[in-house]
Design goal:
Elements: H1 5-24, E1 32-36, E2 42-46, H2 48-54, H3 57-71, H4 77-80, H5 82-107, H6 114-132, H7 147-151, H8 153-177, H9 184-209
Antiparallel strand pairs: 1-2
Helix pairs in contact: 1-3, 1-5, 3-5, 5-6, 6-8, 8-9
Length: 211
């Protein structure tokens, strides 16, 4: 797949958390938050080595996502949805990078409201996914992959259009959850579960109707 500007922007962003964590490592406390519960509160602490290791995740994920087109039998599809693929990759890397950096700030004592941070990040991510999902062409690795979408390009297109609407709704729920309080993220994950289930069911029904 031909590399565009977003590819290089995403590559640079994927390095940022790792570089910042390496620079901050000598000054980190020995005990840093590494996991947060659904209420946005810290529920697990780890070592600063673990924090730095997690900061490499955006780069590892970037490499993985951009390796997929090379091994996909339908690699030609990526030429058709190259821009959408790049935008979605960028959004995923930004979200993971921001979560890691928010954890780093929390380790240094900054008052981070993870319930709100995650709500904003998830909201943005799902709005982007929803807006670009219908542009994703038939392939084996990227998109809404059910037995029925993989079996039929027609079902793939219909499902991704429907799934796009579902993701936009989920993104809006994420933003609304900011004002709900500790139960907000629970509401978001319930909405995500319902939206995913509805999309899978829709995929099956479209397939059954057209066989």
């Amino acid at each position: 797949m031909k590399k565009n500007k977003l590819f290089y922007i995403t590559l640079v962003i994927s390095f940022i958390p790792l570089l910042i964590n390496i620079i901050a490592y000598p000054h980190m406390p020995n005990r840093v938050p590494v996991h947060w519960g659904i209420n946005g509160e810290v529920n697990q602490y780890g070592s600063k080595v673990e924090q730095v290791s997690m900061s490499a995740l955006p780069l590892v994920l970037f490499i993985f996502l951009n390796y997929l087109p090379a091994i996909d039998p339908k690699r030609e599809s990526y030429k058709k949805h190259g821009f959408a693929f790049s935008v979605i990759n960028l959004m995923i890397i930004i979200v993971i990078s921001c979560i890691n950096l928010a954890g780093l700030l929390s380790a240094f004592g900054y008052p981070i409201s993870f319930q709100k941070v995650l709500a904003v990040l998830f909201g943005l991510m799902f709005l982007v996914l929803g807006n670009y999902m219908s542009q994703i062409r038939h392939n084996y690795f990227f998109g809404i992959r059910t037995p029925w979408t993989l079996a039929s390009e027609y079902v793939w297109k219909k499902t991704h259009r429907f799934g796009g609407y579902m993701y936009i709704l989920v993104g809006l729920v994420a933003f609304v959850s900011i004002f709900i309080g500790p139960a907000g993220l629970t509401m978001f994950f319930v909405a995500l579960l319902i939206g995913t289930a509805a999309t899978i069911l829709y995929s099956y029904l479209v397939f059954k109707k057209n066989i």
